[in-house]
Amino acid sequence: MLLDPSPTPHTPHPTPMTTAARRLPKFDPAVFLQKNARKVLAPIIALSIALVLWETFSLVTKSLPGPIQVLQDTWDPWIICPFFVGDQAFGLDGLNGGDVGLGWQTLASLIRVAIGYTLASLLGIAVGILVGASPVLYEAVDPMFQVLRTVPPLAWLPIALAIFKDSGPAGIFILLYHRHLAHYLQHSRRRAATPAGLQKRFQGVASVG
Question: What span, in angstroms and rounded, lies between the C-alpha atoms of 190 and 128?
Fold first, then answer.
């Protein structure tokens, strides 16, 4: 058997990528605007038209402050000093309410949203799985939740204010009510994916252990 005297071609190992090759592509505003012109310009145009209509309506009717007047009245100090508290340009106790800046008000709203969504998630998922696991409990409780679903959350606001006497707990209650129903309906209607639908399988796995 004759051997081929020609040398075996050597396959070069792939060279590692250089730092320059691994860099992200350079951001070019012109290219970005060219590719996303409609997504960027359409909201700006729509907002501009809405502000012009708002200002025109306020000038004609004299019953509603226009955007220019709103900006002038709220610029100092609520916008330019968002974390002022009373006479202080920057205070650390703005969450207590009172005459505080826009930043403290926004932070207080975000805290209420976080508390309301967290409680609604825990309660809604637990109740949804519990109701979905029992057909009898589902048939008994679900009609009541279906009736409550038709009531808009804002309709409960006067009742919540009358009960809690404060806008903070009332806002948390509205979020809890609204998102709790959403989580409940989502999980109770998936009875096939809840422990009721997988009860036999889980019991079989548990018996093996």
Answer: 9
Looking at residue 83, its pLDDT comes to 85
Regarding whether 111 and 67 lie in a shared domain, the answer is: no
Kindly state the average pLDDT of the residues 140-145.
Answer: 83
What are the φ and ψ backbone dihedral angles of 159, each rounded to 5 degrees?
Answer: -65, -40
- pLDDT(51) > 90: yes
Distances (CA, A) of 204 to 100, 134, 200, 208: 60, 19, 6, 6
Alpha carbons 125 and 34: distance in angstroms, whole number: 45
∠ Cα 146 152 156 (to 5°) = 105
118 vs 110: CA distance, rounded Å: 12
134 domain-assigned: yes
DSSP labels, 137-196: HHHHHHHHHHHHHTS-GGGGHHHHHHHHSSHHHHHHHHHHHHHHHHHHHHHHT-GGGSTT
Asked if residue 84 lies in contact with residue 142, where contact means CB atoms within 8 angstroms, the answer is no
| pTM for this model (two decimals) | 0.61
Note whether residue 207 is domain-resident.
no
Q: Same domain, yes or no, for 181 and 115? A: yes
* Same domain, residue pair 44 and 113: no
How many structural domains comprise the chain? 2
> Is 158 within a domain?
yes
Q: Which domain holds residue 42?
A: 32-74
Sole residue written with tokens 């009531």 = 151
